[in-house]
Amino acid sequence: MGDIVASAATDDGRIYPCSMSLDGEYGFKDVALGVPVRLGGGKVKEVIEVALDAAERKALEASAAAIRDMIVEGEGLLKKL
Fold it and tell me: Which of 8, 51, 53, 59 qualifies as a cystine partner to 39, CB 3.0-4.6 A?
């Protein structure tokens, strides 16, 4: 974890897998997924979009759907409180 913090604080150009809310990257919006990112200057400088084959794309879509389903379920539970 120390390397990630150091990269976020500097501009060393390294790429790390990080979970973040996507805004159109990989075709997803408003869902947090683990994706490769370049960190620097205390922020995510760039989401690295790698080419995915059909099976990888299907798995990523399934992950996004599962996360969205959990969010909806959690919101429903919160409304019952």
Answer: 8
What's the pLDDT tens digit per position in 36-76?
Answer: 999 888 889 999 999 999 999 999 999 999 999 999 999 99
Cβ neighbours of residue 28 closer than 8 Å, sequence gap 6 or more: 22, 64
Residues spanned by the domain of 70: 2-79
**Contact status, residue 32 vs residue 19, Cβ threshold 8 Å:** yes
Do residues 8 and 1 lie in contact, with contact meaning Cβ atoms separated by under 8 Å?
no
Instruction: Specify the number of domains making up the chain.
Output: 1
- CATH number for 18: 3.90.110.10
pLDDT band at residue 1, thresholds of 50, 70 and 90? low
